[in-house]
Amino acid sequence: MSLENRSLLYWILPALMGCSLFIQAVDATSINAAIPTIALDFQVSSLALKIALISYLLSTAMFIPVSGWLADKYGTKKIFTIALSIFALGSILCGFSQNLTMLTLFRLLQGIGGSMMLPTSRQMIYQTFDKSELTGIIAKVPLLSSLGIIIGPIIGGFLTTYISWRWIFYINIPFAIAALVVTQKYIITYKKKHTPPLDIVGMILFGLGFSCIILFFAVAGTGWLSLNNEIALIIIAAVSLLAYISHAKKTRFPLLKTRLFKIRNFRIAILNNLFMRFAVGGISLLLMLEFQLVFKFTSFQAGLLILPLPLGMLAMSTIYKKVTLYLPSRELMLANTILYSLIIASFAAFSPQHLVAIISIKLFIFGMLTNSQFATNNLLVYSNIRKSHTSKAVTIASIVQQGGLSIGIGIAPALLALYLGHSETSDTVQSIQAFKYTFLTLAAGLMLTSINIYRLQESNKNTIGLKLKESK
Questions:
Q1: Which of 17, 67, 158, 385 is 20 to 30 Å from 133 by CA-CA measure?
Q2: What is the CATH number of the domain that holds 113?
Q3: pLDDT at position 460, please?
Q4: Residues 206 and 189 both lie in one domain
Q5: Is the distance from CB of 73 to CB of 195 less than 8 angstroms?
Q6: Do 230 and 317 belong together in one domain?
Q7: What whole-number distance in Å separates Cα of residue 445 and Cα of residue 278?
Q8: Containing structural domain, residue 236
Q9: Which of 271, 313, 326 is nearest to 448 (CA)?
Q10: Nearest alpha carbon to residue 146 among 383, 313, 5
Q11: What is the helix (H) or strand (E) element at residue 198, kind and residue range?
Q12: pTM of the model
């Protein structure tokens, strides 16, 4: 690979990964703003429409685990191209849907494409660059993901109000086409010469267990399923995942390489990443809810108020590499985790009387810390992973990311409902208290992850304390 092409890839690959995250985040969050309109158009209740939302999560949960194997066997470029094409096709068909059944089926198709985009793009990055080059690259990615989560409701509200809810899906197409053109022109493929057979039993067991977990947190407390059915989901998930663990220990080529968890840095990073995704998935939703329900802002105004968050992420992405040169790993991660927890706890003080400038400053700092924490965790995940195991590590990390965000989005409203009790969100005083306790609970849970940081391996200061060499 020429030096010029390598320099281009330094920007193109993070952009592709960020783009895949962005369009999925916009798609997932913008549809929430259109639910009442779509329900009215299809002549069904808003609650019934939830099946279309859940279908996307379920297909994603089923196909993420197999994405690494597909990329190894058929090549990263080919699978990424197929994934983008499936997602784009699913988006077009969703826009053409005439009833709930059609929308649900096409959301399933869309989820299959979405499930493979992130793991494959991430795999391309880690197979293209040496670990010593990853620091600056990884810091660029979280910005587009969080930006998509934040502006999704704004886009959804605008398109639904002024054009048509169908454009929530059509808007994905230009991004997908651009990504496809760039992929075909610049990206080289990586493909293993010898790929082991697909672990079909493992795929079924893990897919069933993971899907049940995602489904449980999507419907828990909504009344969509009865309590007995919710308990059944947890039992099925536990039995399936335990069966998978037993199966993985016996089979020669397991779907997920659970032995990677014996690597300390990998294990710690995955656990930290899981709790981070819980927090971020919940915080973004809580802020939008509080600004609209308590502050009485429109969805557009609430979205504008949250804009300092991605600006903070952008600011950190420009200085992150320099920060890592001066701070050893444990000091960096410990300081980041403590500050991150404290800034979330400070959101508990938000009220309609709060100065917008103060809120903006806090959200800007929150964005900076979010980017730093994600980038550091992502580097740590792969710090002791051999390139031959990259696809396995990427698959596990992608499962944690998708599962963590989904669960966080489910946990946050559940906590809020718990603290609200029987009060209505129109009761401003009670609502402020409920949001306060929810933010404090999430901050306390995140603070506990700092305990793991002391178990990180010692290493060179200039590699942010991560052993950026191949594990033996």
A1: 67
A2: 1.20.1250.20
A3: 37
A4: no
A5: yes
A6: no
A7: 10
A8: 199-254
A9: 271
A10: 313
A11: none
A12: 0.74
Given this model, what pLDDT does residue 235 score? 94
Residue 356: is it exposed, middle or buried by C-beta count within 10 angstroms (0-12/13-18/19+)? Answer: exposed
In contact, 100 and 47? CB cutoff 8 Å: no
Q: Clarify whether residues 203 and 343 are in a common domain.
A: no
Q: 52 and 161: one domain?
A: yes
Instruction: Tell me which residues of the chain have a pLDDT lower than 70.
Output: 1-11, 18, 29, 32-33, 46-48, 50, 127, 129-151, 153, 221-223, 299-300, 303, 325-330, 387-388, 422-427, 454-472
Strands (E), 416-456: none
CA–CA gap between residue 388 and residue 399 (Å, rounded): 19
Dihedral of alpha carbons 194, 263, 384, 16, sign? positive
Instruction: Return the structure tokens found at 161.
Output: 């109000």
Instruction: Identify the pLDDT of residue 139.
Output: 58
19/349 Cα distance (integer angstroms): 34
Residues 234 and 267 in one domain: no
Would you say the C-alpha torsion 315, 320, 322, 327 has a positive or negative sign?
A: positive
Q: What angle do CA 340, 341, 347 make, to 5 degrees?
A: 95
Domain count, the chain: 3
In the numeric block, the tokens 């279309």 are attached to: 52
Residues 233 and 288 in one domain: no
Q: Measured in whole angstroms, how far is the alpha carbon of residue 124 from the centre of its chain?
A: 18
Q: What is the DSSP letter of 464?
A: T
